[in-house]
């Protein structure tokens, strides 16, 4: 018989995933709202199901790679509960931990099980060594299907709570999007001076390699130690203002550095001027 899997959602991620399963000899059933996105995969041997219900019926393991959980409901809410019963929904669609728990309940009400996933690599990392994804949900279901999951990426099982994989994924994305936005900001500023992204590349790589800082601050933050022996937030505020002025002097959009200045200023106003900038963690804990 061999292995088989259904993949629902053929954005860049779902297409890479379906391709990885085909590479490993799986029989792959597909469904996507825009059927044309399946063409290459069908040429490689995948089967395009005519409806979500038939895609779900084809295999026990149903990998769902949609934009978010609203899209999952748009595709699967119309499928009869009987068709979903006994299925393992490997839900790799990004959303909040709360939504992941709701969707796990939604699946359970239909006799299915959700494994929540959060993939940490772009499509080019699917099927590649060293890639990883968070998973949470029933451990025995995760273990039973681990080898199928690991066709896509390495697995990092976070626990039974279906929200956990989404939480760890979003923790990652908080850092990813903020850091990447900082990079886009630097490139916009560099462009104002005729500096190309490629010229800045070695400096960008250096600036975003924060391992040393992260390792230094982690135990101090956990110990509640924000002493200003290495850096002080008052210095950080002055530095953030220099960034903002450099950006606006160049005629570049300053919304992002202004938000950083605002955060640092609120920290100073809260009395942390002589503390480390890590004291912003305490400021941010209060909404
Ligand atoms: N791309 C990445 O680098 C990356 C990395 C890590 C994690 N992720 C996560 O992986 C998931 C998939 O990523 P992606 O880049 O493939 O996402 P995407 O480009 O947003 O495409 C996802 C799929 O969602 C479908 N879709 C969206 N709204 C729908 C609706 N209302 N009804 C039916 N289908 C709908 C699209 O169908 P159509 O083809 O018909 O539009 C497409 O198949 C996302 O949650 C993303 O956050 C992505």
Automatic annotation (TrEMBL):
What GO molecular-function term can you cite, just one? oxidoreductase activity
Q: Cross-referenced Gene3D superfamilies, in alphabetical order?
A: N-(1-d-carboxylethyl)-l-norvaline Dehydrogenase, domain 2, NAD(P)-binding Rossmann-like Domain
A matching Pfam family: NAD_binding_2
Enzyme Commission number, as recorded: 1.1.-.-
- Residue ranges annotated for the 6-phosphogluconate dehydrogenase NADP-binding domain, each copy included: 5-152
Superkingdom assignment: Bacteria
Q: Start and end of every NADPH-dependent reductive aminase-like C-terminal domain? A: 161-286
Q: Which named protein is this?
A: NAD(P)-dependent oxidoreductase
UniProt keyword list: Oxidoreductase
Q: Which PANTHER family match?
A: CYTOKINE-LIKE NUCLEAR FACTOR N-PAC, OXIDOREDUCTASE GLYR1-RELATED
**Similarity comment:** Belongs to the HIBADH-related family.
Q: Which organism is it from?
A: Streptomyces lateritius
Q: In the record, what lineage is assigned to the organism producing the protein?
A: Bacteria, Bacillati, Actinomycetota, Actinomycetes, Kitasatosporales
* Enzyme class at the top of the EC tree: oxidoreductase
């Amino acid at each position: 018989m061999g292995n088989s899997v259904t993949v629902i959602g053929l954005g860049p991620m779902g297409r890479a995933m379906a391709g990885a399963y085909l590479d490993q000899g799986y029989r792959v059933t597909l469904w996507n709202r825009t059927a044309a996105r399946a063409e290459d995969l069908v040429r490689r041997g995948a089967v395009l199901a005519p409806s979500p219900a038939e895609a779900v019926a084809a295999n026990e393991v149903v990998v769902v790679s949609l934009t978010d959980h609203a899209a999952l409901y748009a595709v699967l809410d119309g499928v009869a509960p009987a068709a979903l019963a006994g299925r393992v929904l490997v839900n790799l669609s990004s959303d909040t931990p709360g939504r992941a728990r709701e969707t796990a309940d939604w699946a359970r009400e239909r006799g299915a099980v959700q494994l929540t996933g959060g993939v940490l690599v772009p499509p080019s990392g699917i099927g590649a060594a060293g890639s990883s994804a968070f998973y949470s949900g029933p451990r025995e279901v995760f273990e039973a299907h681990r080898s199928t999951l690991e066709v896509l990426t390495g697995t990092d099982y976070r626990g039974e709570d279906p929200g956990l994989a989404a939480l760890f994924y979003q923790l990652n994305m908080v850092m990813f999007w903020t850091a990447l936005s900082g990079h886009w900001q630097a490139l916009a500023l560099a462009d104002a001076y005729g500096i190309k992204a490629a010229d800045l590349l070695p400096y960008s790589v250096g600036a975003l390699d924060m391992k040393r800082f992260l390792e230094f601050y982690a135990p101090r933050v956990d110990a509640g130690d924000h002493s200003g022996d290495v850096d002080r937030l008052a210095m950080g505020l002055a530095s953030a203002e220099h960034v903002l002025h450099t950006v606006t002097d160049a005629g570049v959009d300053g919304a992002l550095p202004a938000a950083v200045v605002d955060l640092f200023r609120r920290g100073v106003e809260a009395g942390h001027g002589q503390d480390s900038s890590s004291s912003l963690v305490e400021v941010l804990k209060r909404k």
